């Protein structure tokens, strides 16, 4: 093939020959350098040589972007690679990949530099919602996720129960910070502020923050941004307040008569039955508020409660005679046992007001609904209920090894102790109750 010395004029005037898809003009100065012109008018410098007994061709670039001198220099560089036993195509691909990775690293670094704690926190919440717990091997509970959301919430929203608005969560003040600014000094200052007004919430929030920081440190997207000592430094851990349970009251044995008398005189029978059920069963507030008629078995005298220990299955406890009669007398307005014709949900939403009214009428000190649950545990000792029986009725997770892995109590065994406890309550409250004369089913409906 004929070679000519490339000049600006020759390069400019070279065109593809008629009836051909492409034509080549070869340079006499740089071995392997050619100008390729296509039938569509495109022109580009190419380098062609033999590699491992096979022809190879590499495009250098468009003629409009490269002058002759630089095209020759690139051709000579490619030839030197061949002389060293390297494939220019592989080298070019590697160089392009390196450029892409460098650009991506630069972009990611820029993003991480402006990434806020709130943005990383949302990614963490998504991880919690979509993965299983490594400890329990189960999906995380709705209550656990709600705690994370509430502790980082900005507040100011209307309360779902009662009047007023929600308060800002302890972690809310950290959400606007850059993740890289969440240092040990910043966490220590945050703890100092929050612990002064709400130490228990601050301690809880710190534990969640520490888990978040541990997750972020192991996450590729935040590598090198997170201060791994932010929650483990001694100046931080030394400021974490000790969590303390809220002090609560309990119904005393001598107060049962007054309490039952006032509760039984409430105008609304649904409120009255609900409050008595909390004390007799020791259930959590929302466990009983969510009780549906399908969860009440009047044939086998059992209640199916959805607790927070086994959220998918819940627990089945006995339905003692007096509580059975209370439920059997309730109207069937809808699917809810403790229904409400005014609430949008159709069920009882705020039983505190009725309880406060009964306490005032009885002249008793203030007690929360959780205090009634606490009273169940305390008063059960008067009947010498075994600790395991009480825990199973209340839905507490077993703590002892034998309780967790070996003890399997039937509902009938629970019933023996539960009925004994209910009878003791009625005796102390001076309530005369004849199970034979009580309503047997709860099948009547309100029209």
Main features:
single chain, 447 residues, 3 domains, five-stranded mixed beta sheet, 17 helices
Explain how this protein is built:
The chain has 447 residues and is α+β, with helices and mostly antiparallel strands. It has three domains: 3-109, Integrase, DNA-binding domain (Double Stranded RNA Binding Domain, 2-Layer Sandwich); 117-237; 253-437, Orthogonal Bundle (hpI Integrase, Chain A). Helices cover 44% and strands 9% of the residues. The chain contains 17 helices and eight strands. It has helices at 8-13, 68-83, 88-114, 117-130, 142-151, 184-197, 199-217, 234-237, 256-264, 269-281, 285-289, 321-328, 352-362, 369-379, 387-394, 401-405, 411-428, and strands at 3-4, 22-27, 33-38, 43-51, 54-62, 296-297, 302-305, 315-318. A five-stranded mixed sheet has the order 1-2-3-4-5, covered by helices on one side. A three-stranded antiparallel sheet has the order 6-7-8. A hairpin with a 2-residue loop joins strand 4 (43-51) and strand 5 (54-62). Helix 9 packs across helix 13. The radius of gyration is 38 Å and the shape is elongated. Mean pLDDT is 88; it is low at 443-447.
């Amino acid at each position: 093939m004929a070679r000519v010395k490339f000049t600006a004029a020759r390069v400019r005037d070279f065109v593809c020959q008629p009836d051909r898809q492409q034509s080549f003009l070869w340079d006499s100065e740089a071995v392997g350098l050619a100008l390729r012109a296509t039938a569509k008018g495109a022109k580009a410098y190419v380098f062609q040589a033999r590699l491992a007994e096979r022809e190879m061709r590499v495009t250098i670039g468009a003629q409009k972007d490269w002058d002759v001198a630089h095209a020759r220099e690139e051709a000579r560089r490619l030839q030197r690679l061949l002389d060293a036993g390297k494939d220019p195509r592989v080298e070019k691909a590697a160089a392009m990949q390196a450029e892409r990775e460098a650009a991506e690293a630069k972009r990611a670094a820029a993003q991480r530099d402006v990434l806020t704690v709130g943005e990383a926190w949302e990614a963490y919440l998504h991880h919690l919602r979509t993965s299983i717990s490594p400890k329990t091997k189960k999906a995380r509970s709705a209550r656990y996720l709600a705690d994370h959301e509430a502790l980082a919430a900005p507040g100011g929203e209307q309360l779902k129960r009662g009047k007023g608005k929600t308060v800002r969560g302890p972690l809310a003040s950290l959400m606007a910070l850059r993740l890289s600014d969440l240092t040990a000094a910043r966490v220590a200052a945050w703890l100092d502020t929050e612990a002064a007004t709400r130490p228990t919430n601050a301690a809880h929030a710190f534990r969640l923050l520490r888990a978040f920081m541990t997750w972020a440190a192991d996450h590729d997207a935040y590598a090198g941004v997170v201060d791994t000592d932010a929650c483990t430094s001694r100046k931080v851990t030394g400021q974490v307040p000790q969590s303390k349970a809220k002090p609560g009251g309990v119904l005393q044995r001598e107060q049962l008569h007054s309490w039952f008398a006032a509760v039984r005189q409430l105008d609304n029978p649904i409120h009255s039955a609900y409050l008595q059920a909390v004390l007799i069963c020791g259930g959590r507030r929302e466990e009983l508020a969510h009780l549906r008629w399908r969860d009440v078995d009047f044939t086998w005298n059992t209640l199916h409660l959805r607790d927070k220990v086994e959220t998918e299955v819940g627990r089945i406890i006995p339905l003692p005679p007096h509580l059975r009669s209370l439920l059997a007398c309730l109207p069937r307005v809808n699917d809810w046992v403790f229904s409400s014709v005014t609430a949008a949900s159709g069920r009882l939403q705020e039983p505190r007001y009725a309880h406060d009214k009964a306490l005032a009428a009885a002249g008793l000190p203030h007690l929360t609904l959780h205090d009634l649950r606490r009273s169940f545990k305390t008063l059960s000792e008067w009947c010498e209920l075994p600790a395991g029986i009480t825990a199973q009725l209340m839905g507490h997770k077993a703590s002892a090894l034998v309780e967790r892995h070996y003890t399997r109590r039937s509902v009938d065994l629970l019933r023996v102790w539960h009925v004994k406890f209910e009878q003791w309550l009625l005796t102390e409250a001076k309530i005369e109750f004849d199970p034979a004369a009580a309503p047997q089913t709860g099948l009547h409906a309100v029209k």
